[in-house]
Design goal:
InterPro entries: UPF0153_domain (IPR052572). This protein is of the alpha+beta class. It folds into 2 domains: 36 residues, no CATH class; 121 residues, no CATH class. Helices cover 17% and strands 32% of the residues. The protein contains 4 helices and 10 strands, in the order ββαααββαββββββ.
């Protein structure tokens, strides 16, 4: 994720990260790092298998649902079990709760629904995912510029990366 205080863009290593060890400036890390907690840290339902260093996945929430960030070095990690099954289950729950589940690999985004996935390619920070719904079922998904979004049209899912 981007760290504004460090001018660190999304999908770039933090200069303070020491792989295999951790944060070199942990005691004085920026406030946005200090306040960040992935879902694995705060949700007891996610067991040790979901620990990011093991799963290669970082879970966060957005205003629209759940974001599953996949280590680009392991782009298919989310397809392994138990992750794929849990992601599908969240997608099924999301279909009834108007909540999206998006897998993010680098800049590529994949909208996951109970019975299919929509590979949306690269989605920029100024773009939004717009779902086409039949009832609660997602039957299509496209990417549009946020500025082109017509208020009150199809529901947009906002990437937060
Ligand atoms: S916690 Fe430390 S290593 Fe991680 S992004 Fe913040 S400053 Fe960088």
């Amino acid at each position: 994720m981007a760290i504004e205080a460090l001018a660190k863009p999304v999908n770039a290593w933090c200069p303070h990260c020491e792989p295999g060890r951790g944060c070199a400036i942990y005691a004085s890390r920026p406030a946005e790092c200090e306040s960040f907690a992935c879902l694995w840290l705060v949700n007891d339902l996610l067991d040790a298998r979901w620990k990011p260093s093991r799963s290669k996945l970082v879970l966060t929430t957005s205003e629209d649902g759940i974001e599953v960030r996949c280590d680009p070095g392991f782009p298919d990690a989310w397809r392994n079990e138990p992750y794929a099954g849990d992601i599908r289950a969240w997608a099924a729950e999301g279909e009834t709760n108007d909540m999206t589940v998006v897998v993010i690999v680098g800049q590529r985004m994949i909208l996951v629904t109970p019975d299919r996935e929509f590979d949306l390619g690269i989605v920029g920070p100024d773009e939004r995912i717009v779902r086409e719904l039949e009832g609660t079922k997602v039957v299509g998904a496209t990417v549009v510029k946020e500025s082109d979004l017509d208020a009150g049209s199809a529901k947009g899912a906002a990437p937060t990366a």
